[in-house]
Write a structure and sequence with these properties.
Elements: H1 5-15, H2 27-41, H3 48-53, E1 57-64, E2 68-69, H4 73-83, E3 88-91, E4 100-101, H5 103-106, E5 112-120, H6 121-154, E6 160-162, H7 173-183, E7 196-198, H8 200-205, H9 210-221, E8 227-231, H10 234-243, E9 247-251, H11 255-268, E10 273-277, E11 295-297, H12 300-303, E12 310-314
Parallel strand pairs: 6-11, 7-8, 8-9, 9-10, 10-11
Antiparallel strand pairs: 1-5, 1-12, 2-4, 3-5
């Protein structure tokens, strides 16, 4: 099976056991994004390593070597589709996005076969590091997201754990936002255009009036786009809710005061979404959870995550 765009799509649709987030991605744009990564990796267009190995068809095995949530399969497919014609990626039954996998528990040598890549060896090696970078980072975000959501659920809280816009600049944010979803967390807004976020700097830049800031934002946001206001006090929060904000962010509040203020806001504005934010981590999250808090956002989910270890190994050959 060659890795052209249609065949990658049909292969992934038929055998993917993910929660369906792969269908969220506009794959032509993903392939265009991946093509840019390859160009950046080879700016002079010379591939001396490719000259050394030639274009003989070879097989490489993709191994998972540390425990975590598997995520990033569509990006791996796209990488080998864009590296050159004649590649194929065949996934094993273990390659289910969203599944927490411990390779040591499923193999005798601590690593688990996730896929086999076939094709011209120069093309395989051209995509190796880019594919592994995307896979290890996407899985890292998904793993941290999964752990955070599971921790919140263990405390009986049913709200949303979300990331933030503290992501890698450029189009790699797509990989990290995708990892959040696969891990069970919310993405928060994807970019500046998706939702209006009026932060303290916005309010300060227009003279400090939350009412006027929200009013002006609504002229462009209309009925179809949520407006969120970052609040530093309960007074800010009441002003924001009164002005018509859809989401009130209680930023850098002390946990106990945040829960008191969240209850007061909900009593008067029951339909306003309340977000707790500001340096919250898994070790501190429990103290912020409340029935009156709808969202807890953590920048660390996309800013301080640990990568999951994968490797891609060409099957050895005696020929040169």
């Amino acid at each position: 099976m060659s890795c052209n765009s249609s065949e990658i799509s049909s292969e992934d649709e038929s055998s993917s056991g993910s929660a369906g987030f792969r269908n969220l991605l506009h794959m032509p744009e993903v392939r265009s994004m991946v093509s840019r990564w390859i160009s950046i990796d080879m700016p002079s267009t010379f591939d001396v390593g490719g000259l050394v190995v030639g274009s003989t068809n070879k097989t490489a095995k993709l191994w998972m070597k540390s425990p975590g949530v598997f995520a990033g399969r569509p990006f791996v497919n796209a990488v080998f589709a864009e590296c050159g014609p004649g590649c194929s990626v065949i996934w094993t039954e273990h390659a289910v996005e969203g599944a927490f996998i411990n390779p040591a528990a499923l193999s005798h040598d601590g690593k688990l076969l996730m896929a086999t890549v076939n094709g011209p060896v120069n093309y395989i090696l051209r995509g190796e590091r880019i594919a592994l970078n995307a896979l290890s980072r996407c899985s890292g975000v998904a793993t941290d997201s999964f752990k955070s959501v599971q921790l919140a659920r263990s405390f009986g809280w049913t709200g949303t754990v979300a990331g933030t816009r503290k992501v890698t600049p450029g189009d790699f944010r797509v990989v990290e936002k995708y990892g959040l979803l696969v891990g069970g967390a919310g993405t928060h807004r994807l970019d500046l255009s998706q939702m209006v976020m009026l932060k303290d700097n916005h309010i300060g830049a227009v003279g400090g009036s939350i009412l006027e800031a929200v009013k002006k934002a609504r002229t462009a946001a209309g009925f179809h786009q949520k407006i969120e206001v970052e609040c530093q006090s309960i007074e800010d929060a009441f002003d924001a809710a009164t002005a018509g904000a859809d989401v009130v962010m209680l930023d850098n509040f002390e946990p106990e005061q945040l829960k008191i203020d969240a209850r007061r806001i909900k009593e008067q504005f029951p339909y306003v979404i309340i977000e707790a934010s500001g340096g919250i981590t898994n070790s501190t999250m429990r103290s912020y959870l409340s029935e009156h808090v709808d969202v807890v956002s953590q920048g660390a989910l996309t800013q301080g995550y640990n990568c999951i270890d994968y490797s891609l190994k060409i099957e050895a050959s005696a020929e040169f």
